[in-house]
Amino acid sequence: MSSPATALTAGGLIAAAVATVAVGAYGVRLSRTTSDFLVASRTVGARWNAAAISGEYLSAASFLGVAGLIAKYGADALWYPVGFTAGYLGLLLFVSAPLRRSGAYTVPDFAEFRLGSTRVRTVAMLVVVTVCIFYLIPQYQGAGIALKALLGVPVWIGPLAVGGIVIANVVGGGMRSITFVQAFQYWLKLTAVAVPALVLLMHFTNEHPQLGGPLPPTVDQQTVVTVETDVVVTVADPTGVTVGGHALESPGQYTLPEGTTLTLASGAQTPVVTGAPASGEAWIQSGGGLGGNHPLYQVFSIMVATFLGAMGLPHVLVRFYTNPDGRAARRTALTVILLLSVFYLFPVLLGVFARLYVPQLLVTGKADAAVLLLPSAAIAGLPGDLIGALVAAGAIAAFLATSSGLLVSIAGALSTDVLRGRVSDFRLVALIAGLVPIPLTLVAPVLDLSRGVGLAFAVAASTLCPLLVLGIWWRGLTAAGAIAGLVVGAFTSGVAILVAVTGWVDDDVLGGWLTTLIGYPAAVTVPLAFATMILVSRLTRDDLPPDVARTFARMHVPERLGMGLERLPRG
Amino acid sequence: MTKPGRPQRERVVLAHRRGSRVVHTRVEVQEQTEVGDALVRGLVRAQLGLALRLAVVVAGGMVALPLINAVFPELSAATVFGVRLNWLTLGLLIYPALYGVGRLFIRLADQAERDFMGVVDDESPP
Predict the structure, then answer these.
(1) Residues in Cβ contact with A120 at an 8 Å cutoff, skipping those fewer than 6 apart
(2) How many independent structural domains does chain B possess?
(3) pLDDT of the residue at A41
């Protein structure tokens, strides 16, 4: 990348970061009480809250990851954005209004309100922290990848920079302050993804290149790709493909070790990482899955994880507590569906264009950088560089917004449950919890961003989702049942993820079923968690909380009846 | 408690005293009497039934899409305005459908709450 372009990009990044801190600082002046810090004193209207939720929710996985997956895997990757949106319909139907009416201020607080047990509260708190850290790691990793792709700095700079800004904002103003920040970031991200998508769409309709042909995508100028981790690629046509100075002679699979340089002559067909569809024909069809065997199971498991996972994301749930009442909470969820629907049109387009204009990313399979590299690759000169800078600003906004939300959730849960819930406790926990994932980010293996976030969704869907859904709708839930379900769900999905990211299991065991199951665990672990909660609750039905009728009335009866009660931490 | 034999004496009041009735039902819900609890149970059942019905419709539609594609691949290969049907459905059309279901739910859930408050506050004419 040329130096004026780098300067523009750096300018975009800094502008987004400065705007974030400035909007946050505006909110800091309004933050005084613990209630301000935890739930913005429950005064956020449906529109502001929906923009803030969308801003917080559209993480690196949505901004960068969705386009990358679509470029790589094609039609079946469309299920990720659909699932990320449909999750809010589930949240609207089953959770939003009763959760708000419960008057709780964090998810663990809801567990104690509903089941009257401090042990449930502690277990729920641990699960919240686990889900948040699982979710925070891909965000920080995404920041590392993005800054490396844009500015060429080492990978550890990204997590450090994003971590630093986020900690400063959250420590400064808590929930009250980040409401403004996140609402602002939704509109920034929408602009940053819509402008390049629409410009490229015009470009595309003028040229109308073929997408679904029988061949892999071709590069239109000589391109050099450096392999950073070992990768196996499929070469359909070796013409013009040179690996480390030697021209390839025959089509087939090649293992490229770390450090290999691959040169593609102009017009050469791009080798594609093995497992992803190579030809345009295979890419444009549904049913190919996302690498590996059993594509239909993969799609169903993604559906389960994303539809139910949004109901269990602590940083999203905590925003529903900031609404003034249950009806506003419902309207917030509906507006979020609208805002997400508008947003996700564009990453899909960008994914398609990425396959056309930057196909060299398919060689290494690291397609997450596609959105960042696309504008300057497809549009020549200053306009391309300007759009590139805008996209960079949107990407940094994505990391900042989601990470802030996650940090508020961790800090809210830990400061009120472990410490005494004072503002100073909140700040201390936010500082520690923001720093801890940074080293984890650097040791954890890097997955595709949407995959990584999808796995965090699977944990959320297997733990907090059954707790909330059964807690809200089934009087028979007991404290022992809830604890058993949370432990089983967290353990099974957590172990599956650890095994999946470390890659201990051979791909061919049991016809590929084992790798598919641990790579996409939700379709198994979610029913398992629900079943455990119900079964153990039935076995311990003598221990039903005594005032469950009053609890149910409070959650479901409209506020006008005057039964509501706002819970507040002890401190 | 009650022994067989003579029924307990009851006092019959003929006039319908509207004012006290309002307070009564409200208090019954708030104090969790049997009547109040039954009213709350009815509301919870109505809301859960509504949410489940809509969820089944949406989930059924979603599950059907990949199955239809697996059975009739030529259907998703059809193009409308130059865009393949599988991309058009999942990339565009599914979103307004989700929003529409959400709107419908809010309308019906609000209605159920109004009905509940109507019973509790006894707004219906005697």
Answers:
(1) A111, A112, A479, A482, A483
(2) 1
(3) 58
Nearest to B38 by CA among A327, A470, A552: A552
Residues in A closer than 8 angstroms to B106, CB to CB, are: 92, 330-331, 334
Whole-angstrom Cα Rg for chain B: 26
From the number of C-beta atoms within 10 Å of its C-beta (0-12, 13-18, 19+), residue A382 rates as exposed
Take residue A163 and report the two structure tokens written for it.
Answer: 């971590």
B54-B60-B61-B67 Cα dihedral, nearest 10 degrees: 170
Three-state SS string across B50-69, please?
HHHHHHHHHHHHHHHHHHHH
φ, ψ at A360 (rounded to 5°): -60, -20
Q: Are strands A246-247 and A241-243 parallel, antiparallel or unpaired?
A: antiparallel
Q: Does residue B24 sit within a domain?
A: no
Q: Is residue B20 part of a domain?
A: no
d(CA A212, CA A556): 51
The percentage of residues in chain A with a pLDDT greater than 90, rounded to a whole number, is 24
Report yes or no: A557 at the B interface, CB cutoff 8 Å. Answer: yes
Name A10's Cβ contacts closer than 8 Å, sequence gap at least 6: A150, A151
The ranges assigned to domains in chain A are 3-210+308-561, 223-269
Q: Residue B126 falls within a domain, yes or no?
A: no
3-state DSSP call for residue A261?
strand
Instruction: Encode pLDDT of A413-459 as tens digits.
Output: 888 888 777 778 888 888 888 888 888 888 877 777 777 888 889 99
Residue B46: domain span: 30-121
CB contact A115 to B (< 8 Å): no
Residue B8 falls within a domain, yes or no?
no
Tell me phi and psi for residue A228, to 5 degrees: -100, -25
Q: Are A486 and A467 in contact (CB under 8 A)?
A: yes
Task: Give me the architecture of the A3-210+308-561 domain, per CATH.
Answer: Up-down Bundle (1.20)
Element (H, E) at A224: strand A223-226
Contact A287 B66 (CB under 8 A): yes
